[in-house]
Amino acid sequence: MSNVIRLVEARMAMPPASGRCNVRMGGECNSAQELLLMLGAEPLSMLELASLPVLTRRVRAGDALFHEGSAAEALHFVRAGSFKIVRTAEDGYEQVLGFADRAEVLGFDALCTATHPSAAIALEDASVFGLHLRDFFELGEHGASLHRLVYRAASSALASRGDLADVMAAVAAEVRLARFLMQLSRRMAERGQSPRRFHLRMTRRDIASYLGVAHETVSRSFGVLARLGVVRVDNREVEVMDMAALHAFAMNTRRPFDEPDPSSVSARRSMRA
Amino acid sequence: MSNVIRLVEARMAMPPASGRCNVRMGGECNSAQELLLMLGAEPLSMLELASLPVLTRRVRAGDALFHEGSAAEALHFVRAGSFKIVRTAEDGYEQVLGFADRAEVLGFDALCTATHPSAAIALEDASVFGLHLRDFFELGEHGASLHRLVYRAASSALASRGDLADVMAAVAAEVRLARFLMQLSRRMAERGQSPRRFHLRMTRRDIASYLGVAHETVSRSFGVLARLGVVRVDNREVEVMDMAALHAFAMNTRRPFDEPDPSSVSARRSMRA
DNA sequence: CGTCAAATTGATCGACTTCAATGCTCGTGG
DNA sequence: CCACGAGCATTGAAGTCGATCAATTTGACG
């Protein structure tokens, strides 16, 4: 409960009200505490890390937190707003690897190569915590509890990229979209927000890239799901009308020749009126 | 049969057999040293971790190191052999998320959920180091150097899943296969082995799942690349004949309307003789 | 109000999935 | 040791879904 409240406050009052933290590029006042709380630290462990040098940084919508190929200097954690993680091919094609919300780690995949294999671009005005690698690697025994939190965040990031595979594994485009919406719904639930109604913060192109289809196909797939009454879509506003049907859609790995679970709305696909 | 045994022996003996370490399921003698060396530790840091409780475990071809959904108990590092990382859908469809070779970490994505979101299945008789989570999280300041190594391995695992997206992002099946082969080639080079000639340790089905296409399509794509003289394929034995052409193939993000790099073999696609 | 990007909708064609049948490898057992 | 069988791999044929090109509408922002 208090989690929810804090989350909402952070989101509503995006320029955080903690006064001195608003320094242009790096107040360290209570940032450490805020970061640790966000990552789920126990109060006990926070004392020993009170002096953790944490930078805060704001990123405007469309700007990159870091570019692909740039040198890795810090680990970042999303404080507010959201990001897309992308890789850009030589010909300019932008592949979206995932989306990151509050408390998620950014730039972890740069630790092994010392240069970022992917870029992080803000989908809306955002704010992040930064932990310089030098500092991060040099906190001796005090760092134990922080390490645990970072491991968890990194593990979560790894699992997220597994979700990407889940989505792209589906054959039919509507199934991919359905799985994507299920992922979003689950994430919303984890944050204590409504899993039935949410605002998409990314463009159709971003979704298309994430799904591995053309952006026109995303539009059409939204249309199909909407016509079937599974969801209601108004631009970037999405409402899940029939969660069971959406789930049934997301299941189909192969051709949906078998009857698609007789519960709830019939999820037949022939919609050529 | 005898073939397999000889192969296994050769592989197991790869690290100069440190004698007592061959205990069935858990000698801790020099395993710690071996693990640290494998992960690239500096000799200096190895002294303080000499007593690290490291288990060794052998996994036979086709067996699972851990199953999807099982409780996370340890971090594993591949000592010998190779694995595929898979997620299985309710309908039994097996999605391959990646392949792991020597020195790679397995099971890292279980840290956040405490249960494995993916399974690791040995592609051949294999051997791993195991680090129990209790032990891992409880090495105070001495763990600093180990943490650095584990972070690097985990970061590498995250980047690998980005490669998965790269592959599945391609529109044409031959491009996906070409990218996959480039990945393999790069990995071989990193290990100091020939980047032009290698043995595929996974089935065509596994490749197909990784690429996100039907396994028949993988066969056909191999055929196309072979007919063009880009590679030579004999069952699971692959030889890259024209690395530049393979690279050119791997580039194509969109339809190959522009001339595909006039160097080397012409990489046109119309092969309807 | 005017501009530009985002989003929707339509039409065409090619590539991939799917079904089906055969050849090949390799491990097991006769 | 050889022959058999089960999974792996290749090849063929047909139907379909989605990529692409193209045109229009909507929406956001100055």
Secondary structure layout:
The structure is a homodimer of 273-residue chains.
Chain A: H1 2-12, H2 31-39, H3 43-46, E1 54-59, E2 64-66, E3 74-80, E4 83-88, E5 94-100, E6 105-106, E7 119-122, E8 126-132, H4 133-137, H5 144-169, H6 173-190, E9 197-199, H7 204-211, H8 215-227, E10 231-234, E11 237-240, H9 243-251
Antiparallel strand pairs in A: 1-8, 2-7, 3-6, 3-8, 4-5, 4-7, 9-11, 10-11
Chain B binds a DNA duplex (30 and 30 nucleotides) through helix 8.
Adjacency order of strands in the biggest sheet of chain A: 1-8-3-6
Strand content of chain A: 15-25%
Q: For the largest interface in this structure, which chains are involved and how many residues does each contribute?
A: A-B, 44 and 44 residues
Structural class of chain A: alpha+beta
Total strand count of chain A, please?
11
Summed up, the domain count of chain A is 2
Largest sheet of chain A, described in full? 4 strands, antiparallel
Uncertain segments of chain A of ≥5 residues (pLDDT<50)? 1-27, 255-273
CATH C-level name of the largest domain in chain A: Mainly Beta
State the end-to-end CA separation of chain A: 47 Å
Question: Rg of chain A to the nearest angstrom?
Answer: 20 Å
CATH architecture of the largest domain in chain A: Sandwich
* Average pLDDT over all residues of chain A: 84
- The general outline of chain A is globular
Series of H and E elements of chain A:
HHHEEEEEEEEHHHEHHEEH
Tags for this entry?
273 residues, four-stranded antiparallel β-sheet, disordered N terminus, DNA-binding, homodimer, Jelly Rolls, 9 helices, 2 domains, alpha+beta, Arc Repressor Mutant, subunit A
